[in-house]
Design goal:
Length: 269
């Protein structure tokens, strides 16, 4: 019998995992200070009415090639944009503007509410910069950006600009979460879990998806990656699955700080 609580546990399986949030926050603060000093950071740009419906926007030097929206993880219940600014470095050094939204968290809101918030965030980000839109997200953020490429989620004017979505260690089938302790916070019903599972929807046509996961991640995250690749490929989507050797759930996103890393290149492909 599968222990689903253990299946979704990440931090306990990464040495030194408890220290990571503090390290992320420090690296992000340092990069924000660097970008603010260069006049390339706009903080707390509102995309909705809620206190957490704000995003930071980091601009490249010179003209922008388009915008990448990066959506953070934390099981829809933790963190905000201030932990992740440093992950924009590789993208902005390639000439792209990067928007990093915060969003309201469970249990104050449901996952369906968060999906609606990210829809507003992507729409607002699209108004900041002309050109193509690329989405990337990690863990719960991977779920949220994949939801954005489900048919009927984004406004048509935004969806037609969508060039690629990259779900990093993303969750694409939420049904197993219903029966675990985490759901005391998420409050998912079986009906909402199905409605909020990207694998249960049809993808937008002509938008490529990359499902990227660390090869040393928990088996459930590997399964979730295989699942979206198989299900959406059968629906005609252009899906690429990448199992990044040597990386776990947290080290896998560190490559975003490097402008020439395979992950950065994949997002911008």
């Amino acid at each position: 019998m599968i222990d689903w609580d253990d299946a979704f546990e990440n931090m306990a399986y990464v040495p030194g995992g408890q220290a990571l949030p503090g390290q992320w926050a420090e690296a992000a603060a340092n990069f924000r200070a660097e970008m603010a000093g260069a006049g390339r950071l706009k903080e707390d740009v509102a995309y909705g009415d809620g206190a957490r419906e704000v995003m930071d926007i980091v601009s490249p030097e010179g003209d922008s090639r388009g915008i990448v929206v990066f959506v953070h993880g934390g099981y829809w219940r933790a963190f905000d944009k201030s932990h992740w600014t440093h992950l924009a470095r590789g993208l902005v050094e390639n000439g792209w503007t990067v928007a990093l939204p915060s969003y309201p968290l469970a249990p104050e809101v449901r996952i369906s509410d968060i999906t609606a918030c990210i829809t507003r965030a992507v729409t607002a980000a699209a108004g900041q910069v002309a050109g193509p839109i690329r989405l990337a997200g990690h863990s719960a953020g991977g779920h949220l950006v994949t939801r954005m490429m489900c048919q009927g989620v984004l406004p048509d004017a935004v969806a037609t600009r969508l060039a690629r979505v990259t779900s990093i260690s993303g969750l694409h089938q939420l049904g197993p979460l219903v029966g675990i302790k985490l759901n005391d916070t998420l409050r998912l019903t079986p009906e909402e879990a199905d409605a909020e599972s990207p694998a249960a929807h049809d993808p937008l046509p002509n938008v490529p998806l990359t499902a990227w996961v660390g090869a040393q991640e928990r088996p459930e995250f590997l399964r979730q990656t295989r699942l979206i690749e198989e299900v959406w490929a059968l629906k005609g989507a252009d899906v690429t699955a990448v199992y990044d050797p040597g990386h776990n759930h947290f080290t896998v996103i560190g490559a975003l700080e490097q402008p020439d890393s395979p992950l950065t290149k994949e997002i911008l492909r």
